[in-house]
Amino acid sequence: MNDTAEPTVVIVPGLRDHVPEHWQTLLAARLDNVRTVPPLERDGLSRAARVAALDAVLTDIEGPVVLVAHSAGVMITVHWAQQPTRPVRGALLATPPDLETPLPQGYPTPEELAAGDWNPIPWRRLPFPSIVAASSTDPLASYRRVAGMAEAWGSRLADLGDVGHLNPASGYGYWPRAEELLRELIDATAATTAAPEAVR
Fold it and tell me: Are residues 37 and 11 in contact, defined by beta-carbon separation less than 8 angstroms?
């Protein structure tokens, strides 16, 4: 495998899946080599089904991969990374939710999350380099909790400031910094050739 090649970018959406005006959707349209984890037709709140859907996309790709996850997509990525089935060069993890505390109205309840086996949040170091992009005003997670996740996962923490949950309801939309952080991650990991359990 030539890990110095330009990687395939895999977009990992949150539980709302594909929103046309979402920054992940707009980012995917601007990239040449990109795959998006498809929506689930059933078991949408099953963490295992979501992880399996990500794994199916990754299994189908040859060559290096970089992940771009948002919201619950971050948790899908982190759960997948507990038992990775292939090398991943790096991941951009934007505004992870704190699923261990009750979410605002309109989001899954603690009971629904428990039924879907989303908790506990994995707090083990990730087997690949990563950037956690954190909001100071995210209604789904406090900055302190997200900073703690970044530290536990061995991620670089990027402070985005006041961006809410970084979704259309918060005014995003096209998010140009996604491309900046993605390029930074790709360039910084260009020489990564280690096996998935050895990557740092």
Answer: yes
- Kindly give, in sequence order, each residue whose CB lies less than 8 Å from that of residue 114, ignoring residues fewer than 6 positions away: none
Q: What is the pTM of this model?
A: 0.91
User: Can you tell me the distance from the alpha carbon of 180 to that of 186, in angstroms, rounded to the nearest whole number?
Assistant: 10
User: Cβ distance 37 to 68 under 8 Å?
Assistant: no
The region, left, alpha or beta by phi > 0 then psi within -120 to 50, assigned to residue 183 is alpha
Peptide bond into 173 cis (omega under 30): yes
Tell me what pLDDT residue 18 has: 75
Phi, psi angle pair for 58, to nearest 5°: -65, -35
Q: How far apart are CA 104 and CA 168, in angstroms?
A: 16
Alpha-carbon gap, residue 22 to 172, rounded angstroms: 7
Residue 74 has a pLDDT of 98
Give the C-alpha separation, 135 to 140, whole Å. 10
